[in-house]
Write a structure and sequence with these properties.
Length: 386
């Protein structure tokens, strides 16, 4: 769908008044999985896939929400915003509006139509994309664009944590809001300090591989994994003064891991500590153009997520293994929370077409249904476009 069609659909739903149009990207995390809530480093980037939104003010307190991706349309009063399971996707905008209002920012009635080209449930942060889209609309329409981006990020995360019920870390919202074209960002999820890192991957492309195994974070073991890490942290605090697992060096962890009696608790903590170090190594490799080393780190990350964190599953493992069997691929890993969704592969530019054909055919043969593949540029963060 192009923007002129989206605008026409808006007119059909809400009348002829010209809407303002915003775009909010998805994100792909190059490396650093399940450590944002453990205070570690991550290396995400914003993609050129995302969520578009048309919006205009109303003269009352009604919020009307419609999507071109779902049949469900929702109308609510701004004074009566609560999570309602039957409202499905609309709970994400409702949560952001609720917490923007609760934080003291100006917000009033709106007519909103959204459309996204992010595969739903694929682990590319369609929820964070939608949250930041709504937050930026409110910032621009009612608050003269003066709300600091970090506040929009934190409100969007709080909405997902406390309104939707997913204990996500801050990475997704941060990457969506702060994306910069042709750059990844090294983000310290504890301090929120960050720097941009040029995507210096030379003659390689990032291929996003969608297993088409849909996942819902609030129906998965995501929150369970976070609780297991908190248990590990509470045990280790008896022996070292730390605020989060990723404050530990590998050497420190290896001295302390004997106190983690349960295998699964020790494995979760081990992944967090080692993955954090992999992110820093990957950042250095990216800065210096060491693409083979970057690919190796991606692959190491996947097998840590498979064996220590146990968040991959047959679909993700199959597509990553098939990718790694191709001579053109120098590294692959799941990306996102796991339990389905997407993986990424670093593939020689000239071989991308053959890579997609071969991996796609073999995946369908093994799993029984097709995977989808995406090539997308690295884009800017959430913004008004018209």
């Amino acid at each position: 769908m192009d923007l002129s069609n989206l605008r026409e659909r808006f007119y059909m739903l809400y009348g002829s008044e010209e809407p303002r149009i915003f775009f909010s990207p998805s994100r792909v995390n190059l490396i650093g999985e399940h450590i944002d809530y453990n205070g570690g480093y991550v290396l995400p980037c914003a993609t050129q896939l995302g969520t578009y939104g048309c919006v205009k003010k109303r003269d009352d307190n009604k919020i009307r929400l419609a999507s071109e991706n779902f049949d469900l349309k929702v109308e609510v009063d701004i004074e009566d915003l609560k999570y309602e399971s039957e409202h499905g996707w609309a709970n994400y905008p409702k949560g952001v509006i609720f917490f923007m209002k609760k934080s003291g920012y100006k917000v009033s009635g709106m007519d909103i139509l959204v459309w996204g080209n992010i595969p739903n449930g694929a682990g590319l942060s369609s929820s964070a994309s939608l949250e930041l889209l709504i937050a930026e609309m409110i910032n621009s329409l009612f608050n003269d664009g003066e709300i600091p981006k970090i506040d929009l990020i934190k409100i969007s995360q709080k909405s997902e944590n406390d309104f939707i019920g997913v204990k996500c870390g801050v990475m997704d919202q941060f990457a969506v809001a702060m994306g910069k074209a042709n750059n990844a960002m090294l983000l310290n999820c504890n301090s929120l300090n960050y720097k941009y890192v040029k995507m210096n991957i030379k003659d390689y492309k990032i291929v996003i591989m969608n297993t088409n195994k849909r996942r819902e974070l609030n129906d998965s073991k995501y929150n369970e994994r976070r609780d297991e890490c908190e248990r590990a942290l509470n045990i280790l605090r008896n022996y070292k003064d730390i605020d989060n697992l990723c404050q530990l060096t590998i050497e420190e962890f290896e001295k302390l891991e004997k106190y983690l009696d349960e295998d699964n608790i020790r494995n979760r903590a081990s992944h967090a500590v080692y993955e954090n170090q992999r992110v820093l190594k990957a950042c250095t490799a990216l800065e210096n153009g060491y693409i083979l080393e970057l690919g190796q780190l991606l692959t190491e990350s996947h097998y840590s997520l498979k064996n220590l964190y146990e968040v991959t599953g047959i679909e993700l493992d199959t597509i990553v293994n098939l990718a790694l069997e191709q001579d053109s691929c120098i590294g692959a890993r799941m990306t996102g929370a796991g339990f389905g969704g997407c993986a990424i592969a670093l593939v020689q530019d000239e071989a991308v077409g053959i890579f997609i054909d071969k991996v796609g055919q073999m995946y369908k043969s093994k799993i029984g249904y097709e995977a989808d593949f995406y090539l997308t540029g690295i884009g800017d963060g959430t913004r008004e476009i018209i």
